[in-house]
Amino acid sequence: xxxxxxxxxxxxxxxxxxxxxxxxxxxxxxxxxxxxxxxxxxxxxxxxxxxxxxxxxxxxxxxxxxxxxxxxxxxxxxxxxxxxxxxxxxxxxxxxxxxxxxxxxxxxxx
Length: 110
Known about the structure:
Elements: E1 2-5, H1 15-19, E2 25-26, E3 34-35, H2 46-50, E4 56-58, H3 78-83, H4 92-95
Antiparallel strand pairs: 1-4, 2-3
Protein name: 4Fe-4S ferredoxin-type domain-containing protein
Region (Disordered): 88-110
Domain 4Fe-4S ferredoxin-type: 1-30, 31-61
């Protein structure tokens, strides 16, 4: 669930507003979007993935953080970094580790 728009890092591009499928954000006169409908967040990470300034944090839960829970600073913008989006980053598919896939022979014809 969306938890944070870090105003100090936001470049007011409104990409998060544009890509959110459930219109969680509202535009403001200052240019820094606000989380207006947090309960509508689907935890799809689209806003965090498209944020060119890594100024957003989406918690990987479908419920808001408790009031006493702190947002881990090293996690802000991490999703975008992990998937390899952004200048100078390797695409996540190139660094993914998974099981070795068997190489099968093509099916016989005829």
